[in-house]
Amino acid sequence: MKTKIIGISGSPRRDGNTEILLDRVLDAAKNKGADVKKFVLNELKFSACQECDNIRKDGICIVQDDWQKIFAEIEDADAIVLASPVFFGSVSAQTKMFIDRFQCLWLAKDIFKTYKPKKKKNGVFICVEASDRKDFFENAKSIVKNLFATIDTDYKFELLCSGIDAKSAINKKPDCLKRASEIGEKLTK
Length: 189
Prior knowledge:
Number of helices: 6
Helix content: 25-40%
CATH superfamily: Flavodoxin domain
Order of helices and strands: EHEHEEHHEHEH
CATH class: Alpha Beta
CATH topology: Rossmann fold
CATH architecture: 3-Layer(aba) Sandwich
Strand content: 15-25%
Distance between the termini: 12 Å
Number of strands: 6
Largest sheet: 6 strands, mixed
Mean pLDDT: 95
């Protein structure tokens, strides 16, 4: 049975550094036989968490929009690769908005005790930043680790590349590109 991997780009810039690394991971996994699917958050139509009063207790968000498509794919995935640039010391707004929508799942799992995950997943976090601030990576990682815990995903690999600003500048960082390919290959094992 093929490994099912979901890639999620939280960058507003298409074909930029974040997406280049995400594509490297997904391409390497696909070349090893994985079934991969990529979502670009900036191209989807979904709202931020509305903290609804009439929430369902099974973890399913009542707001019907494109977020539901990703949620359904995540439920069946074997691995999740989340990629975001650093914006103001953390993940991008698109990424944070996506993550916040899992509030209903967190409530079902940790408060109501009504959610049972289908299976454990492996998680990868890819993050690119222009500066060299390790605390920015730590901020972003803490948010992603909380998401992964909520969706029963082991924080298995990370790829953090600093000093990357101009579009496609990551192509001048062979170590980051190589690591992305290695992570993609390891996800299929």
